[in-house]
Amino acid sequence: MSGKDVAVVALLILGFASFVTTHVWLAGRLILRGSSRLRGALALFVPPLAPIWGYRQGFRKGAVLWVAALVTYVAARVVAQFA
Questions:
Q1: 45-30-77 Cα angle (round to 5)
Q2: Per-residue DSSP letters for 26-83?
Q3: Which class for 34: exposed (0-12), middle (13-18), buried (19 or more C-beta within 10 A)?
Q4: What is the spatial distance between Cα 63 and Cα 53, in angstroms, rounded to a whole number?
Q5: Residues 6+ apart with CB under 8 A from 44
Q6: What is the number of alpha carbons within 13 Å of residue 5 lying toward its C-beta?
Q7: 23: helix, coil or strand?
Q8: How confident is the model over 10-35, as pLDDT tens digits?
């Protein structure tokens, strides 16, 4: 394995782990502190709803982190596919 391969694998793992962690955290926060607990539960199983409803509920940092983690993971997948 070259150094580039190691970096791509590390980015894949970091991107996916941060995406899943942020998603569960944001959905959990919607369940516990949101106005509608049903929205939080639904956001847990329909991922694109989590940042939308989180942003609307005032969890802006969580929504931005969710999008950033997803972008990191997708970018790493693209690099891994063409590397």
A1: 50
A2: HHHHHHHHSS-HHHHHHHHHSTTHHHHHHHHTT-HHHHHHHHHHHHHHHHHHHHHHH-
A3: buried
A4: 9
A5: 23, 24, 27, 28, 31, 50
A6: 2
A7: helix
A8: 999 999 999 999 999 999 999 998 77
> Please, what is the Cα angle at 12 between 80 and 20, to 5 degrees?
140
Kindly report, residue by residue over 37-61, the tens digit of the pLDDT.
Answer: 899 999 999 999 999 999 999 999 9
Would you say 49 and 42 are in contact if contact means Cβ atoms under 8 Å apart?
A: yes
Query: Cβ distance 47 to 26 under 8 Å?
Result: no
**Distance, CA of 42 to CA of 5 (rounded, Å):** 37
- Whether residue 14 contacts residue 75, with contact meaning beta carbons closer than 8 Å, is answered with no
